[in-house]
# Entry
Amino acid sequence: NIDNDNDNNNIDDIEELNKLENELIQLEEEEKQLSLLEQAVKIWGPEGYVIADLEHHEQALVYVNNTFTEITGYTQEESIGKNCRFLQGPSTDLEVVHKIQNAIENFEPIKIELINYKKNGNSFWNELS
# Structure
């Protein structure tokens, strides 16, 4: 019985190690993708960039660069996990917002400008593509 218990413990340990190894491999792959993303953003230039997860029910932001935080006044912590709607305000054109939503829903490219708002309440023109 003691040998049986040791064998079961060893199997559990091996399964746990395999699980941890798979998680580590996944994390390494995610780090590689993030590194590529960061390199691409550096190449794109000094503009504000965000990336949203279109599969998330709120289409939450998953990435904002430093220029975005400088332009808007919102930190990465305040921005990531939210929908871009938090930048909208009284002068944001709802017709433009609907065009953006339609393009997203239909997986169509769009290049459009709208008025958004900084954390301090000042408006700014934002070009989306």
